[in-house]
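My hope is that you will study the protein record below before we discuss the fold together.
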Amino acid sequence: MVSDAQAGPRACAWLANARLDLAMAFGWVPFYAWLRTTSVVGDVGDAAFLPALKLAAVVALSVNFVHRHFVYFLFFGDEKQRALYPRALWLAPLLVIVLVVPTGLWWPAGSGVVFGTLFAWNIWHTLLQRHGIARAYAVKGGGGLEERAHSRRDLHMLLALAACTAAVVIMFRQNTFYGRAQHAFDIFHVMVAREYPAIGWTLLLGAAVVAAATVLAWIRAEAQASPRVGRAPRLLFWASSLCLLGVFVVHGVVVGYLVFGFAHAVEYVLFVYLYSHRRIGRGETAPSVRLFGRAIPLVIVSAILLAVFVASHQVWTLPLFGVYYSATSALHFFYDGLIWKMRRPEVRAPIVAWAFTRHGV
């Protein structure tokens, strides 16, 4: 995947190289193109919708299953991480088991609370990952883009655009609501679009105004910055984020969530490879680094995890599997939050330190 054969240092705006960076940004496009050929894009009331949704969900969840288990290798397979957060080794799993297992197996009413919490946490987690990769480009670019103030502008713009997207979907895409969250979406839609349309339009216009203000502030700061490398790779990544939000607007909740989740998993796997590969180049030898920093071991681990997911298809509908999936989701979100802190030099350096680098990674 990576070649260091060509010599000659040059200014490099890519985090890795054009091929890998574009795969991080737009690796979801083939999945989206395939979805457009299925009935998932059609009417949720159509007879062909549910079988198509089940197949699309299996594909998206299989990739998601692979990526969510990477974090355990990254945390437990790295002595530095274990030393930084010694209590997280046992306290986090204990808390998750205490909270998730009883609700999943013996308290059905509580499972709705757990599902809603994980649903919201997943949205936050997915947006924060996009923000983090965009920040990696900004820190590498420098020239003012690396400042904490611009980081806040990045995050505010992303969250404002996501909120505006959610408002549009709730107001106008009610025909795409489906699944466990359908009831909540229906309640929101009825309240803001039918019973109290004035409130709905006020919220929508308010979200649009806030989004426009954050975009203008971002553009002004962007124009004033003088990055030491080209802007195109970073702006392409931002464009991919806007396109993902656009999928929600065009196709609604189901397709938008499937595509965004698929994109999240793909970009995570590739980013982990880049991060680990760079750490190998810096002489680090942690087991997780050796495992994920080379293409062949990474592919083998991914294939094993994918095989485990496929082999477990007979228990997908059992409550115990739901408990397992909920628990691993919570732990994935938690450990990811500990590991990926761009303000920490040991995290930032392998990704952004090479503003002038050789061709490839």
Observations:
- DSSP finds 15 helices and two strands in the chain.
- Residues 1-9, 355-360 have pLDDT under 50 and may be disordered.
- Strands lie at 10-11, 356-357.
